[in-house]
Fold these 2 entries.
Entry 1:
Amino acid sequence: MERFFSRRARTIRRSVLRELLKFTQRPEVISFAGGTPDPETFPKDELSRIAAEEIARNYAKCLQYSTTEGDTKLREVLLKLFAGEGIEATLDEIIITTASQQGLDLVAKTFIDPGDVVYMELPSYIGAIQAFRAFQAELVGVPLEEDGMDLEALRERIRADKREGRRPKFIYVIPDFQNPTGVCWSREKRLKLLEIASEEDLLVVEDAPYRPLRFRGEHIPSLKALDEEGRVVFLFTLSKILVPGLRVAALVGDREIVSKVVAVKQAADLCTPALTQALAYRFLAESDIAGHIETIRAHYRRKRDAMIEALERHMPEGVRWTRPDGGLFLWVALPEGADTERMFPKALERKVAYVIGTPFFVDGSGRNTMRLSFAIATEEQIEEGIRRLSEVVREELAAVSAAAGL
Ligand SMILES: Cc1ncc(COP(=O)(O)O)c(C=O)c1O
């Protein structure tokens, strides 16, 4: 059947990650592999009530098509939420998307011609890599440091690309508690990134699913709030603060951009489901959303602390990890020479799972790294799972030393 596939479809591969995740879903496996939020945080009773009421009373609207831009009341309530964050936007500067993964796909369709250069953090979110690759972007990874991207490296690379006749298009970043590392960008780096984007005349795509999930430390303004030139396209999803199952998110940007994205979305799905938009709207308008987010934060903070404590207790010398102030993930780097993919079957034998690092690196590096999610496992499972994982890591490090003849 391959002969029928388009050139584009031929370049698209199923995510390695999804394939690996299949092995991790056996009940006896303690999994740090998933990227999903904890169902314990889902406000199921409230959503059940709202869903029953909406369908009974408003079926003519909520079971109908929506507009491509999305429900006006939902957009208004989201704009109010964003205004509280210093993001000033009007109704023609926001579109509802079928969650942020669609936002990324629409961004790709709207901006990328084959060969256009997209800069992203090294490592970065696999779903974005897939979305941009599908449109034959040339993806350039820029090393991520503790406080954000290495911006000198970014600037040099953009200039070199321009000199060599390539076409830089946009910079994609996840400044708050990034997937996969949990890193949060400093204010200085956010400002500097905007300066570079302005000097080099590039767009910035800011993906902010974990932004509200800060457990500690000071609030840092989003790039969109700092943006004075309309260069930032802001993606925000309800997946991590409400539920992923609604598939509701928003894209905020310059009105000309949003107008084009509306046209592009029409061909994709006509509209995001009216029903899930209605549920999202009612939840945001009627519930104590701030209180709900506070409960979620406390929930993940406890688990994050449990994971850091377990890592400190069990991991051997030479292993490093991030200490995120928010989000769902932390990032572990083993000493050079270790290989988390080689280690993976051994981890599964011990009934513990993680995500290997390489698929997050557009340049294929990161063999010694892995992502751990603290979202789903209980605190007891976190302690036991990290204990098991540290045994596998010790074996891997012993094998590396033996191979090096040490
Ligand atoms: C950085 C990032 N962007 C986008 C998404 C997609 O989220 P959704 O499509 O559920 O809104 C995710 C999901 O894990 C993510 O981590």
Entry 2:
Amino acid sequence: MRERQDVILGGGLAGLSAAYHLQLAGEDHWQTYERRSRVGGLARTVDVEGYRFDYGPHILFTIDKEMEELIRDLLGDNFHAQERRAYIYHQSEDLYTQFPFQAHLYGLPIPIVRECLVGLTRAMEKQARGDFDPQNYEEWMRGFFGDGIAEHLMIPYARKIWTVEPSTMDFSWIGRRVPTPDVERIFQGALTDEVDQVGATAHFWYTKQGGIEPLPKALGERISGLNLDRTAIRLELPEKRVVFEDGDIVPFDQLIYTLPLPFIPRFVANLPPEVKRACEGLRYQGIYCVNLGIDREAISDKHWIYYYEDAFPFHRLSVPANFSPDTVPAGKSAIATEVAFSEDRPLDRETAVEKTIEGLIAARLITADDTISLVHTEEILPAYVIYDLQHASNVATIREWLLQYGIRTAGRFGEWQYFNMDHSMRSGKRAVDEIVAARR
Ligand SMILES: Cc1cc2nc3c(=O)[nH]c(=O)nc-3n(C[C@H](O)[C@H](O)[C@H](O)COP(=O)(O)OP(=O)(O)OC[C@H]3O[C@@H](n4cnc5c(N)ncnc54)[C@H](O)[C@@H]3O)c2cc1C
């Protein structure tokens, strides 16, 4: 039997950040195990026939100064700050408005603008009377922005991306994710197009070369004790042992788990019933990425576009060449679309590509005469955590139970939160801070 180790499971950004910050804290004996032959997890980039696609396009933005410093340091010269060009397509009107919808009503038909502004005013009156006590995400949208904005865009879009009714969702995740411009700015954006961008992604960063993967790659190069191609298959508790696919058994003292929380029952036998129930209660959706290479230059000047109408299978498409020209061969374009699926809305793999192409033609992004020289698909599951109304209590039950065995969970799927890359890196560091504080 091996000696006890301190272990990190998963070499995505959370696991790598944990390993890096442990080293900085002088804890340089930790071992990180990653099942793939490359680090990065969701923040990897795939190269196909001269095209580069992230696992769902990944842009960088943060208000976390410490993570910003780390990201800038990791990317060095391979860093490109950009101003967002993000839009919403309205097929019913055949027009684009700028993202976010509520801050750029200008250009929509007058009756829709009127409905949105009247709804907003009524919502504000209610808020002023103290009549704002939303119990779910739909009530939050209606109560915060009013019925017009909620019904014209936010509710249909929420159904599309989350695959479930927003009335069955909690809204604790919103934070800065749903841009919440002030009323004056909403009115300004209804009267003119000459307004500043709002929201966390108004300015974002991407690499000049290599897609998003140079970020985790650079972090991986800074850490020692990295074990690639090592798949954990079991956690033996209370013995505190990790069993790997290759038969190796590693006893651990402390462990940072960055794999999906709902997979705990696959790893741990004989879970207490309440923990098993909590794991089974966690809900998520997946993203089917349909990536296309088109034999035409400069297919769009936009970074990304949202599609809330049912005519389109995808809820978002991105134009990777506008993030970085390095992502497409000379003279070509690429389109990366994202189709959400879940138990509530199963994915039809047979027709997803065909329907996506039909949708792109209907949206007039491409024409029937365009040559599609590459079709590349990736399935991400889980992709987004669904915040149902039991989310917080289920997550707390599982994490508290694991902690008694020295297992801390971190990252988007370990903490089971809507985390971006910066949050996942922060989460890895948070686990380290706790470990270091506990040891002292
Ligand atoms: C479609 C999509 C788009 C996104 N866009 C953005 C964006 O624009 N900007 C942004 O900031 N964030 C974005 N994110 C979020 C971002 O990808 C995540 O926050 C971050 O990459 C998560 O890192 P992580 O380490 O927590 O998890 P992961 O990246 O999932 O890492 C977990 C690691 O564990 C490994 N692993 C799994 N099972 C085992 C096993 N049994 N044994 C050993 N290792 C194992 C995996 O291979 C993986 O490397 C997006 C996410 C998705 C799904």
